Task: structure prediction
Amino acid sequence: MLRDRLIRILLNLGSLLALACAAQAQEAMQPPADHEQLPPAPEWDFGRDIRPILAENCFRCHGMDEQKSGLRLDTYAGAFADLGGTFALVPGDLESSELWLRISTEDDFDQMPPAGEPESLEAEEIDKIRQWIEAGAPWGNHWAFEPIRSTAPPVPKDQAWGRNEIDAFILADLESAGLSPNQQAPRAQLLRRLSFDLIGLPPTPEQVKAFLEAEDPDRAYEEAVDRLLASPQFGERWARHWLDLVRFAETKGHEFDFPIPNAWVYRDYVIRAFQNDLPYDRLVQEHIAGDLLEPRRHPETGANEAVLGTGFFFLGEEVHSPVDPRGDELSRTANKIDVLSKTFLGLTVGCARCHDHKFDPITAGDYYALAGVLHSSSYRQVRFETQEQNSHLAEQLEELRAQYQEDFQTWLPSAPEPAVEPDSVFPAQASPESHPPNSLIYDFGAPGPEGILQDGFSFLSLQAGDCIPGSTPQASVPFFSPLDCVAFDPIWHRLKLAAETAKDPGDKSWVASGRMVRTPSFTVPASGRLHYLVRGAGRVLAVVDSHRMLSGPLHKSNLKTWKAEKPGFFWVSQNFEDYVGQRVFLEFSPGDPEEISLALAWIAEGKHAPPLPEVLGGDWTLENLNPVSGLDSYWPKQQAILDQIQESSQTGLALMEGAGFDEYLLLRGDPRSPAETVPRSFLSALRNAEDQTATLGSGRLALAQSLTRESNPLTSRVMVNRLWHHLFGRGLVATVDNFGALGVPPTHPQLLDWLAVRFMQEGWSIKTALRRMVTSSTYRQGHQPSQEARSKDPENLLWHHMPVRRLQGEAIRDAMLSVSGRLDSSMFGLSVPVHLTPSMQGRGRPGKSGPVDGDGRRSIYQEIRRNFLPPFMSVFDMPPPFSSMGKRTVSNVPAQSLAMMNSSFVTEQARLWAQRLLLNPEESTQERLHRMYWQAFGRSPRELEITLALEFLHQNPGEPLDAWADLAHVLFNTKEFLFLP
Amino acid sequence: MPELPQNQLWRPSRRQILLRAAHGFGALAFAAMQPGLLSAASNGRFSTRKKVAKHVIFLYMDGGISQVDSFDYKPRLEKEAGNPIKMEIPKTQFDDVGAVLPSPWKFQHYGECGMHISDLFPHIGSCADDLALIRSMTSAFPEHTNANYFLHTGSGLQGRPSMGAWWTYGMGSDSEDLPGFVVLNGGLVPPGGLDNFSNGFLPASYQASLFSNGAEPVPNLKPKEKTPEQQRRKLDLLEALDQGLLGQILPEDDAVRSAMQNYETAYRMQSAVPELMDIAGESEAVRKLYGLEAEFEHTRTYGALCLMARRLVQRGVRFIEITCPHIPGNDRWDQHSNLRKGHGENAKAVDQPIAGLLKDLKGLGLLDEVLVVFAGEFGRTPMAQGTNGRDHNPHGYSIWLAGGGAKGGTIIGSTDEYGYYAIEDPWEIHDLHATMLALMGVDHTRLTYRFDSRDMRLTDVKGHVIEAAIA
Result:
């Protein structure tokens, strides 16, 4: 049983080796001849081998969308159903299986797939189906879609070795394979391992010494675990793992590598989330719908953290001036879906863009259901620091205004005689003239069921007759709305950006954050012209197929700005001739504070603007009312609220909820071949009764809940497996981003499920899960396998030892900084600009290079420009940020040696380290050597090492500093510095 | 694990394959392990070919060279000069459609084949009988970056392996001291940046090494030590310390051993690269041939790169790409305006060196095993952008192949009378890739790498070999 599993695993691992030729790979996959001969593995697996054939050749007409002749082959019930006396499949009986007769017949009339259709079966595929039916047509879900099953840990024979349940699972398998675990690693090595794994830095000499001197080693170990988990640097280490999943970068790549403004805010959010052990289900929910959840306030600043999770959607590549915005949008969306599904579910839903997934139960419909969810929301820079505080003030203002309104109505009869009768301005019944025109596209006075869509709360919905006062008695006059509309409340002109806040590329003068109202999406009408009935100065950005950049030759006309040339409402027109038939929404924001404040009523279409409604010809308030007297008591109350407004905020990338709409299913992924629309919803294979298709809004909140439901078989499994991968060097499922049929099945399925269940039971606590893993005896094993273990399980699939691992580039760099004394451990904030080497050329190259040593900050704070990736990190396998990379490649190339031998950064750090060593002139050479070894490796130098070093120093021609710098440089290059034992 | 003797390379264990895939240069000799991949020779269409190409030199014409001014003669442009173009045209990058713009250059017949080539390229014209000219190439993207990624990686998006990465993954390298995939940087990194030369999802060992002119052609190549002896002393100490760790502090582990060996390879590279870059030993005749004596500075620059490419071929490097020289005032071949000046100067820079390369390879008997490819990411519009420029045109443009089994003196496909759309035998980039691989003896459908739960290919699910281009 275990043996069979091992073979399966071996075979599957083999497929990962990515040998170009399958036949050759098979040959190479044979176990070495001196191994015990194992029985042959089953030749096929339903999920891996049979389902794909059916999916590719049958599902189009006998699947989810269509069931010709009543046959549905993508479900068990459908495939074995009684079709009126005949059966598509009869287990073990070829002649009674209609499916077999149809695919094997020579008769053109009966043949399936029918001649002339795009599908056709190869001879070997037909043969596989024959074997499968003969073997009883076993049907089954792929393991990863089966519910998580909690089983009690096994009871191994050796009761002394294990420390916790993990060990029980691991040891039981080792025992049945006739193997025993490795002895525990030396204690100093253990602390080093623990320290790099949990915080990405080496332990200090003091920490190692205290650890070694402790009387109770086990207790000292647990204390070290607790200390490291509580260290702020834990967040920095584990955030970097997460950034690999969300293809984190701070520029958009493509031609000019424009910045992604304030991407670092997301990075800091992730660091804090790991640092504070944010429950993982909440982390997932915040990524999908953090803007729609109850705010999670930062304990000190009061900032809303939750909304920042959604920023990850915008960390991808972006084209500055696409000729085909729809095609471009679909590419961006494909990347988002790819990242979302791999990161949270370990599934490659991106494969279903053009057709149903060939191997996993994911349909093209599932893909476009998600695309609809994503397209129903839009981008913004959110004022996350002040949003919560200010929204409460906005509510207080609203109450105060209601009072004002009443007072005003009372006062009105005593007001000076106006030039125009108020009755004609505020008719009791709307006159025909004030009805919206027939060509109306959108009425701000009567928004859809989602209500007004705005970023912030600065736009107020007004009904005809409502008024809002100015921000001060002197500065402005009240605005009476003569019809239903939305109006910008001028008090919010005071909102500012924090000093470090970056603006979107393009028109930088324009800051919409917290001051923007948008329309739902609609299709650009054939007239190709839109007209906006507005009052006051404003701007509009037309977002066509979610493209919003203004930095290229095309699409510049999508931004329109106007002044308040006259009081009252007037029409502003914008040209859309290039976009007829495309999807668009409009984002409005106010113009300069000095001008009349913005109000928006109608959006109409047509070659010409509709006639101006007569009643709106002037601005009654401006022409007829002087600043209001008699309401003096109002102003101090308003001022008390205004004084509390937090004016300045940093912004961060975030989603903004729009009005929901369903996306079309695109045949072959081609935007020119839309089929029917697909309701916005979660993946059909994982959907249950609680999951519903979205009616109102984007459906993100429901998606977030579906992803984190305890019945979801993937989310918790995928995450505990990632944690395991980072600690042990290989996941229980080796393909950490792909739990689908083409991934590798788990080496320890029961352990995986046990961990996943515990993870959920313990509040999705990442630190608790990690703690259990690193305190296990399994993790504490040594790295030298026995001869027997090596020959029985050469791949170490059973974990009979801990593998030696090369450190990641970040850890190598950070360790050098730490040892040299240069490490600046300050946290958070703007990234340190990337250091530009001469080979880093191309468009978008920054004008100025960052410092060679990155200001001594940890690697996670070094800027990541998509087109100018830091070479030291790239050469050590930091992934190019194009999609989720839960598992970095671990290459071993001469370019790494060159970087360690000759790069300025490394030699500079070696020299700094030498300077630090020479600070005390009293110290002997021997003492100094000891100090070096303790700093770099947490141990004393051995006899051989002292001899070699002394000889080297002795022979060195230059100054002592040069000699010590050279020695330091050599120690940075030793394999002990680069590999984690 | 002890180092394997060379003669056992062809039957390694799985571990060893993994190991060797990840390490070193010479160790990339995958071909030897993959008879099914390389020797389509034994089954089918390549069996008749005695020789296959071993190296590629890819002359990348960054920015999009105008087909109607170079290799695709269109008399109709002269007839309708200054008039609005009489066809429905697609959206273009700048949406600034001007009148029909005839070529400022005259066309002549070259070679025995009588190929029409413009006065931009008289030297290349003299090699016409070696060129397989494809006048009906198309791209899927009208923007530089997408089109560059597409040309280089077969996908319009960032993150896929570049051609050269596929080549070294599939065919290894014959060089022990140099990387298998070298980009000679003439001064212009194309839009999309270094990702055009990326290993994408393939292991990092397959990424391009960018060689540039100057004191340090390869990053971190130059030792910081004052004397070579001092560096040697340090490396000796390192070796001794590392040896002392093995089996004690570190396990006897393949990866650790390989990391140790990498220092020796790196050390050798330090001298191999300068030796490669030093062309003092080349004869006067060769220098002249490549344009190293030319008056125009940029001809000399590009000539040196072409000569370097030949030297890389001689040292066993599998795939060499040359990017264009940076000529101040011209934005690559991307002449949205000032076509005459921009194309004129660019052509002056590359024409003689490219012809020199072809002739030199031929003279050395190397042209049969070196496939030279001349291509930009797209072509340009037959009507003006503004008054004197041309906008991007992915719908029909010219590229050519020479050497490596390509059929010289051949013209494949054609565009419409304006030279806008490919109408006869339109080909796409996937077909170019399939053909290039075919010339190496590789079936493009079998060069795969499992990623993202798919067997990924350079040609995706597409690609047809352009049979007419193969001798």
